[in-house]
Amino acid sequence: LLGHIGHNAEVHADAGALQDASNKPSAASQQGQVLVEVRGLTRRFGSFVAVNNVSFDIHRGKVFGLLGPHGAGKTTTILMLLGLIEAAKGKIEVLGLDPRWNPLEVKRNVGYLPDAVGFYDPMTGRENLRFTARLNGLEDYEGLIGSLLDLVGLAEAADQASGEYSRGMKQ
Predict the structure, then answer these.
(1) Is the Cβ–Cβ distance between 86 and 100 less than 8 Å?
(2) Range 64-77 burial, b when 16+ CB lie within 10 A, else e
């Protein structure tokens, strides 16, 4: 299912079937573990309503996407799920955790790949990973960084400035 988000639109989606605003569980929502639960999610930037009363569930083993035009609130919704920005109202649970109160635990268990990766171009790939590890409170990360660079095939490029990387290498 691909949930659609639009300006000032209400979205009520379930990973198996669209549901109405009453949030009654559908037959599909009773299958599999709910990994993400969102109810009545709203976010404003001043007077602009970026996300308006969005509700959906994402179940284990299902594919879920957010579709909508530029500025419809897709990225804002994802950032709220990760605890990077706060909702004005609504309930969010990711793996049973509220990202407002447990953002680091949510981030330890969820991967997010934005379109534009926020590397510092003058820093090497390895330096960017060290910086990110420190920001996230990781300890003893050097071995992990080396293993991850090997895993994604970037060990040889690890000490080049990330500004020289292709978009694919940055992702």
Answers:
(1) yes
(2) bebebeeebbbbbb
